[in-house]
Lipoprotein (Streptomyces showdoensis), 680 residues
Amino acid sequence: MSGRLAVLAAAGLLATVVPSAQAGAAEQAPRVDLTVLVVDDGGSAVEAITAELKGSGVPYRTLDLNDANRPTLTAAFLSEPSDPVTGRPRAKYQGVVLPHEAVFGPDSAEQAALVAYEKTFGIPQVDAYTWAHPGVGLDYTSDGGYSGVLDGARAYVTPAGQGGPFRHLRGAVDFEDNDPSVSESYGYAGRPRAGYTSYLDMPVAGGARASLIGEYAHDGRRELVVSFAYNRYQRQFRALARGIVEWLTQGVHLGQERNYLSVHVDDVLAPDARWDTARNCTPGDLDCPGGDGEAENPIRMTAADAQYAAAWQKSSGLLLDLVYNGGQGEQWKTEHGGTDPLATRLLADRAQYRWVNHTYTHPFLGCVQDNTTVPWQCAKDPVTGAVKWTSRSEISAQIRDNLNWALGKGVSVDRTELVTGEHSGLKTLPQQPADNPNLAGALADNGVEWTASDNSREPQQRSVGTGSLAAQTVPRHPMNVYYNVGTAAEMTDEYNWIYTSRADGGSGICESNPASTCLPAPLDPATGYAEHIAPQEARTALSHVMGNDPRPHYVHQSNLAEERILYPVLDKVLADYRELFAANTPLVNPRQKDVGTELDRRAAWERALADGKVTAYRVGATVTVKAPSGVDVPLTAPEGTRKQLLLGTTAFGTAYAGTRSAWTGPELLQTSITLKLPTT
């Protein structure tokens, strides 16, 4: 260790906020890069934390223990005695993630280098999964603790946790128990010793409490000890992940995170076809025998359904996006005596919703479909063999006419947003492997910048067209509440058809599809939706919400009609969310263009990080970030942080989850971002 580093260690100049009274000491504070070191053993715990870092935009470097050619962890790997930019000692990593506290061996040179580094620069360490023992500040579980399966257990964030890194949680954290026949979580809850502060604990025998997560301060170092197993998808980890990163980075890091929920209701004003429980198909579809090609007994909302939707929005606090087909509404009106109580009710409440253009009459906008075969195929010119496409003028008219319908009714619509019928026009595998070449031009004709895609087919955002006028896709999550059902019994019947074996009367799709699994037995039509389907779909949607995923979910107007089967799913999502998260972490409900902008920014940020074009570090109470011109930077910092202007400072970011965060860039006449952290 150099003499200068030794002085820093002795003086206790950690990479934390420096009080103004210590201005002299702050002048000697080291440079600490805003990058995390992840030591990876291939286990699920480290993988989960890595996924959290990546998903929220925090830069990290992986040291793969399974790579025989990996670098050796030395003082030079971790730090520099004098940084050429600042002239100060440099810590290359602001935090370290280890599989467990003894991964390098207690007497190894690598462990010694790591300990010296953490002591010198005040770098925190996360022990991703370990057991309760005195070496991590806990009693053995035999001394009044607990070890075993945690499925269904309820743990609690302690006052220290709520006042610290887990301030975003309300209090109770339940461990998942999705399958009673499978052990999903295992852990060790130990009673704290001196130097250990518990952040998450659980009751144990005798009325005592034992810790599952806590901070162990010892020998000039700090460790976050996690003593239960988990993977990246489990709800308990997703709830705690933000706090683990906040602790690891001391609340100052690149990247940001939100909990998003938007719900698109497609086909508003249009009727949807109905599943036939006897024929196990949807009349009107090509593969449904015995029909005449027309939908039978279609499902459509009523005025009462619309009134209920408006009232539900108000009571739930969640704004719905109505993805509408004006021409379908006009056709319905013509066919039903010139009146449409549904449209009348929706238009009376038009200001209570967000509206999204879904084309005027919901046609298929890709290739011209040849329906003489099942499945359909793209029609081709009999002479040239070229694929026939829906024309640019037809696509443009569908977009324009639906927009004009809304404007004529006093409905506020953002012309930059579009959802085509069935996401058509975009490539549809296997029949149509490329976008309709006329789509991009039609989108540009109408000023469309964000067009929806199906996340189950295309989870990544991409451009439609080329050049400055190209639109971007906005992937949407399809909810497993089917478009062609209006009742719970219909939903359960179709679900059984898809997810039960042929021997149990199902289609057998679940047997032949490697990505699917079959139900052990068909669900009861009377109870299957409420007891199995709705809770499962709510769990899936909540996992997206808790995964920093802004992509909208989409359903259909039929799910708000008749038995209104969507609401139990959304009610459970909202109830579970509000039971878990504190008021400082509200749901964010972005509209389609805001989702598109968020995904676009993330992609640019990921490219900048991958190309090594971002420099970010902290010196005492000052954070400096440099990124390529035009690339917005996601930043998170404590409350009280201010951003440097040309003259003076301004409050940084917006409040969320007890921190301040924002996408930001350099201020006027500046080439870098400078934040001033609170010093008290």
About this structure: The chain has 17 helices and 33 strands.
